[in-house]
Design goal:
Layout lengths: L1 E9 L4 H11 L2 E11 L2 E10 L6 H15 L1 E7 H7 L3
Antiparallel strand pairs: 1-3, 1-4, 2-3
């Protein structure tokens, strides 16, 4: 399953580490990552692939959402197919 993870919020130390640790702990491989900081706001989009067929997207979404609340950012996780349809021109 291929995933798109977006992270938005005030910049602070450890955002990337806390997000990628959850992905690694759930056997999710990062394929591409792009992040920037503009006027103190952190923005990241991450393209990843879950190799484990037992991983449920809703479970990963909940873990990342909880972590986002803990560090003060918004984390959204979508299946790539949904992301592609939503952003089709």
């Amino acid at each position: 399953m291929k995933l798109i993870v977006t992270v938005v919020g005030r910049d602070r130390i450890g955002i990337i580490a806390s997000v990628t640790k959850i992905l690694a702990d759930n056997n999710v491989n990062i394929l591409s990552i792009n992040q920037n900081i503009l006027d103190g706001f952190f923005n990241m989009i991450l393209f990843a692939e879950a190799a484990d067929n037992k991983l449920r997207l809703v479970d990963l979404q909940a873990k990342l959402r909880e972590q986002g609340k803990a560090i003060g950012v918004e984390i959204k996780t979508q299946h790539q197919d949904i992301f592609d349809v939503m952003h089709k021109i």
